[in-house]
TrEMBL record:
InterPro entries xrefs: HATPase_C_sf, HATPase_dom, Ribosomal_Su5_D2-typ_SF, Ribsml_uS5_D2-typ_fold_subgr, Top6b_C, TopoVI_B, TopoVI_B_transducer
Binding partners and assembly: Homodimer. Heterotetramer of two Top6A and two Top6B chains.
Positions bound to ATP: N57, D88, S109, R110, G119, Q120, Q121, G122, I123, G124, I125, S126, K648
Functional note: Relaxes both positive and negative superturns and exhibits a strong decatenase activity.
Keywords: ATP-binding, Coiled coil, DNA-binding, Isomerase, Nucleotide-binding, Topoisomerase
Protein name, entry field: Type 2 DNA topoisomerase 6 subunit B
Listed SMART domains: HATPase_c
Coiled-coil residue windows: 658-685
Reactions mediated catalytically: ATP-dependent breakage, passage and rejoining of double-stranded DNA
Amino acid sequence: MTAFQSTLGEEEGIAEELAENQRAISIAEFFEKNKHMLGFDSGARGLVTAVKEAVDNALDAAEESGILPDIYVEIEESGDYYKLIVEDNGPGLTKDSLPKVFGKLLYGSRFHKREQSRGQQGIGISAAVLYSQLTSGKPAKITSRTQGSNEAQYFELIIDTDENEPEISVDRTTTWDRPHGTRIELEMEGNMRARQQLHDYIKHTAVVNPHARLELREPQAHFKFERATDQLPEETEEIRPHPHGVELGTVIKMLSATDSHSVSGFLQEEFTRVGKKTAESVIDEFRDRHYGREMAWTPPGPHESADVAAAVTEATVNKGATATEAFATAIADAVADSDRVAHNELVAIVDSSADAVEDEHGTTFGDTVRENAAEAAWAELAGLVGDDEDEDPADETDADPDDHSRLVTDLYELADGATSTRKDDEVVHAFAVRLAGKFEDSEDTRHRFTHKTLVEFVDRAAELTEEYDDVAFGDTARENVVDAIWSVMVTVPDDPPRVRDLSGDRDATSDLVDGMRATDIMAPPTRCLSPISDDLIEAGLKKEFEADFYAAATRDAEVSGGDPFIVEAGIAYGGDLEAEGSANVMRFANRVPLVYQRGACATTDVVKSIGWRNYGLDQPGGSGVPNGPVVIMIHVASTNVPFTSESKDAVANVPEIEDEIELAIREAARELKSYLNKRRSMQKRRKKQNVLGKILPEMATKVAEVTGRAEPDIDDAIARIMNNVLVERRLEENGDGQTVEVVVENHSSTNESLAVTDIVSAEPSNLSDGATVVEMDGEWFVKWDADVSSGDEAVLTYEVSTDAAFDIDVDGVEAEKLTVTDTETNQ
Ligand SMILES: Nc1ncnc2c1ncn2[C@@H]1O[C@H](COP(=O)(O)OP(=O)(O)OP(=O)(O)O)[C@@H](O)[C@H]1O
């Protein structure tokens, strides 16, 4: 029995006793116990993670200050431990901030910023310090020199885990040969079993950061990556959150923190891409959700008993006959001129008619008169003065086909247009009668309903119709009818609540968040992001892998959780890539290679979910990572990459991000597909050509033998059979010299553009139009660009002495589609 159990059963004091054991846990203490969460779960991994944290910080700091990064990483054995040194040429850290940066967890400059950076949480480097002190007991040794300062600061510190504060043991000035930057030295327990991961991390960092100079020295290897460009990545700018995808909790927090009083001001001030017009659209969406829409009915026609003018006249008292008539006519005319009228629109019509009549007749139309008039006119319009005497409003099953209230006619039209043509007229009519009943019986005489209520009305009317008329009125029909009615209903003009009222109202805020999501809003600005760009991805892949084919795609920015993100993908295929086994999937987030937890990453999940056979790759079982000589690279750039854990190894399964990853990969994969298709058809062509190349000469000899004639021109025949482009030289003696004809016959089905270069050993003359000649070291290069339509031919001519030798080179047509016969050369 545990001590805890022994106390059970005794009535008093358990809670008190338990309460005595409760105490707050410092964040440093927590991570001391849970270092795996930060990527320090083993000695091998600890070293890689520490390098990664320090190098990521160095790159961030240098780029932020517009400095081309120059980073030196050294790992050396030091007795039972490993010593890690990372030096950068960044801006350095001030004496005040340095101890906190390295000696306090959750302290950093990036957590609150909406801007792409490698660092996000303010944990990374202090976690490395924590791991080092935990495993070696030694303090972190840090040197930092800020720009323009004559001397550097030197600190030795550990983290006081109870307090999560730095404990400084040495604090002095020193000299350092770097003009500015930071050097950190950590000793830790470790091993180099993860050497490959370490090398990959440094190598891949170099690939996606061509502006950085990186050097790694470790006990068994030393390599340097010189910078490939002096161009820093485009500077990023901090942005406000985008309204798409911000969560309710965040909006509640923002509402209580904002200085704005109106919702419109709040939206414009606190979010990116929201101007006055967009704010108004969001508020309209909010109104639809929060207040509902009002049903707009068609105005009564001349054959109908409903009479707006008569009703207004009757409701207006003591205004004199002329003014009353003018008032009633103005309202009736405005109603008749509208396609449909909702309650709030009618109120506006009454107001403007009253104002106009007041001006013209000098009679005052007060609020009560206006209200009475609006009520009377609305009763006509909305069928509130029922013309069906026998109808029992309590009997919702009543669907008398003879019943023709004006609402029924209106709703019938809408329902008929929205349901399949197979639905019987009478059934639709019966449904319209029941639905009209719901409107007529509603307590809200303005016919103002939320979408949800409308769905309930339609469902109920449909259920009754199914039950009593024994017909199907399924989900699709119901949804279509709801859509048709909702689209003619009108957004109400009610003012949204003030920010201070909204901030305490969770439901109303939720309507606002839904409204923000439903509004079309321009994609967020991308200046807060720094994608690699498709060109540089291709260049990076080319630098790293010898392949036959490369493709890359950069998607437009999208939003997730209010944070903009961009996904990029690259594919390399063939060449020297490993043909055995599955494809090499390279993952990057904010230009940082992701080394661990491949299997837990959204990028890997997406790669596995794609049907690669469609793109011409081998994929056993039709799912999973494809096989073959392929590298698939994915880069997720975001102002806040959603990682699965603080160790930032794997991207979480966020649907919006997964969709974009898929689209980016598919974009690059489509190019791969057409490359592979072409390659396959070229292979077929080559095979066919090889067979023909063997058979035709034998046939030619046989034919010549049998017929006793000269052997036919085989090259010509091959070109024609294969639908090739034939380039043929013809020579004709001409006095002292000879005329050269280079003939291009296009037997293919497409128009072709060729670049022909004939290298001649003597000086040519009388070149045909379009050809140029350049002399180099006693050889003449006759250059000619020929555009030859399908089925056509083009000829290059020139003259040259009979002893000239030729060598022809043709560019612009794949080798498999080209037949060159240069046999009649004099050499
Ligand atoms: N080499 C450096 N030069 C200049 N500033 C640095 C350097 N390293 C860290 N910093 C500063 O210290 C802060 C804390 O760094 P830390 O690695 O703990 O967190 P982070 O990089 O912000 O986030 P993450 O936990 O995601 O890595 C950074 O935000 C940055 O402002």
